[in-house]
Amino acid sequence: MYNVLEVNKTNYENCREQEFITNVSRGGGRDVFELKEAKAYYFLSGGGFCWSGMKLAISVHQPSPSPPPPPPPASSKAASLLSPTTSIIITTLLLAFSIVLVWLL
């Protein structure tokens, strides 16, 4: 039977199971451990199995805060209604209409 032990970094590096922090073993392969805080966690298997590589180090970090949403683009109502192409077309039509009016008068 394997024991899953939480240990400090020194004991992890030296496969030393004495003075463990927590015995995570519950039996029957149902070993569960909550990683509740941001820090480095070190686990090893007792009974000398650590020397065969049965150990695990996990580094838990706080999630990065999500960036704020981008500000809405600053624009006036008229600018939001007309695209640059539409503005050019309307300006050209008004100019052509003015020329026709002057020609007719």
UniProtKB/TrEMBL annotation:
It holds the Pfam family Cu_bind_like. One of its GO terms (molecular function) is electron transfer activity. The keyword Transmembrane helix applies. PROSITE patterns: PHYTOCYANIN (PS51485). InterPro entries: Cupredoxin, Phytocyanin-like, Phytocyanin_dom. It comes from the Eukaryota. The chain crosses the membrane at residues 40-61, 81-104. Keywords: Membrane, Transmembrane, Transmembrane helix. GO terms for cellular component: plasma membrane. Residues 1-62 form the Phytocyanin domain. This is Phytocyanin domain-containing protein. It comes from Acer negundo.
